[in-house]
Amino acid sequence: MTDDDDELLDLLRAAAERIDPPPSTVVEVGRAALSTRRIDEELAALIADSDLVPAGVVRDGAGDEPRLLVFETAGVTLEVHVEPDGGQLVLRGLVAGASGSVVIEAASGLRSAPIDAGGWFTVVGLVDGSARFRLRGDDGTPIVTSWVLI
User: Which pLDDT tens digit goes with each residue over 93-127?
Assistant: First the structure.
């Protein structure tokens, strides 16, 4: 490729961005997919999501029901209740096998919440979008969850 080719590609990229930009959710999910987790982190698998109801189960469709997400590793369990609150989200979580704090990487930025002696934490003011959770197991192992849409 020549310098002329690079200039043409830059012009085409700028025109496409102005005329038909990608939806923000596509950009957000793409960034999440391309971000790699650190090699020393253990991935906590999503083992339950109340939004994934079996066929034949009827929900009331009100859209304001709390959502339950459960992540798990061999030594750590993370339960997160996601509740709508006036256009924002409140996350209330319970952690077993970890202490310290939970870091939430979300569309609205990084948030940190201390885990109390009972294993509980609360984060308010999040917005809908992709999120993942980071914490440290009682044995010191860094834990990260997969990305989920909250």
Answer: 999 999 999 999 987 789 999 999 999 999 998 98
Q: What angle do CA 62, 65, 71 make, to 5 degrees?
A: 140
Closest CA to 136 of 81, 97, 80, 83: 97
Q: DSSP character for 112?
A: E
**Which of 133, 132, 61, 140 is closest to 95 using CA atoms?**
133
The residue assigned the tokens 């939430």 is 104
β strands within 4-139, DSSP E: 42-49, 67-72, 77-85, 88-96, 98-106, 109-114, 120-126, 130-137
**CB < 8 Å & 24+ apart, contacts of 112-117:** none
Number of H helices, E strands in the chain: 2, 10
Predicted local distance difference test score (pLDDT) of residue 26: 80
What residues does 149 pair with on adjacent strands? 130
